[in-house]
Design goal:
By secondary structure, the chain is an alpha/beta fold. Helices cover 37% and strands 17% of the residues. The chain has 2 domains: 25-95, Orthogonal Bundle (Helicase, Ruva Protein, domain 3); 101-301, 3-Layer(aba) Sandwich (Rossmann fold), CATH 3.40.50. Strand 8 (284-289) and strand 9 form a beta hairpin. It is elongated. The termini are far apart.
């Protein structure tokens, strides 16, 4: 099985895997799947995504493209991505983008990797938008922009997306630029939680949604997370609840009457967050599960005007 760097002198002529040094993507797919088994639970998926990226294939083109011959530029990209993945770098960062609901988002080490459980949280926020006829939404701690940009893409609402990190906002800005006309309804703002918002929005937001840091300071994480993803977007105090409690306590003054707060968190934090929301004056607070059946989010609702 081939391994290591490849040096192809002729890559656009001759039969696949011929004696002249040419090689087809099908051979590299087998090689990549074999090599990545040491770092991935699904090396076949990793290999496919790396080859799609290196070759420039759309997913629907993948199978038909496997017998194409590899160019020198493409194989250099392939080699680099394989090396990065073998060093433990998450696949999402290696390929530079990842799907989230209906969007394909640029991601790198400046932001958290978009995850399926956060897609559920975005869906909960959209359900609240629909239920109350929301027009103004804030996504606090937006990171790559996954939640806020998905909301703007799927619903005709005004979205404020904030983050304390200038680097994260740079990624969100790049993703926002890819949305075309939808981008005119999104404002990016730098700052810590509600401090990033203009005071005139106080009491005017219909839905506030956030995937804040919720990992305890001493909590162990898989090396793929702990060694690569931004720590400031992961950890929030001894129990991981510092930012959750801040958001719950300050959200009521920023929400409109009947508005909703939607928060992602760890399963063991949901009961505490629900109780904190009721203590903060929300009239209802409900726990929702993610797509694996684990408690993942709390949706709290403010009292409507009489």
């Amino acid at each position: 099985m081939p391994s290591g760097k490849h040096n192809l002198s002729q890559v656009t002529e001759g039969p696949p895997d011929g004696d002249d040094g040419t090689i087809a993507w099908r051979s590299l797919l087998a090689e990549a799947t074999d090599r990545l088994a040491s770092v991935s639970e699904r090396p076949d998926i990793d290999a496919r995504r790396i080859i799609e990226t290196a070759a420039g294939f759309e997913p629907a083109e993948f199978l038909a493209g496997l017998d194409q011959l590899v160019t020198n530029r493409a194989i250099a990209s392939y080699d680099q991505m394989i090396d990065r993945r073998l060093q433990g770098e998450p696949l999402q960062y290696v390929v530079g983008s990842w799907s989230f609901r209906y969007l394909d988002l640029m991601v790198d080490r400046r932001v958290l990797i978009p995850r399926p459980e956060t897609e559920v949280v975005a869906g909960l926020a959209i359900a609240e938008i629909d239920a109350i006829g929301a027009t103004k939404v804030a996504d606090l701690g937006t990171g790559s922009g996954a939640i806020g940009l998905s909301i703007a893409h799927e619903r005709e609402v005004e979205v404020w997306a904030t983050d304390l990190s200038q680097e994260a906002l740079a990624v969100a800005r790049a993703n926002l630029a890819a949305l075309g006309r939808v981008a005119t309804r999104v404002t990016l703002a730098e700052g810590s939680w509600f401090e990033a918002l203009p005071s005139e929005l106080m009491g005017q937001l219909d839905v506030i949604v956030s995937n804040p840091p919720y990992v305890g300071d001493d909590e162990e994480l898989p090396s793929e997370v702990a060694d690569w993803e931004p720590v400031t977007a992961l950890r929030a105090g001894p129990q991981g609840t510092d930012d959750l409690h801040l958001l719950i306590s300050q959200a009521p003054e920023w929400l409109s009457a009947g508005g909703s707060l939607v928060l992602e968190m760890a399963p063991w934090q949901t009961s505490d967050a629900r109780d904190a929301a009721l203590a903060a004056g929300f009239v209802a607070a409900e726990v929702f599960a993610d797509n694996t059946g684990r408690d993942r989010a709390v949706v709290a609702r403010k009292r409507s005007e009489a």
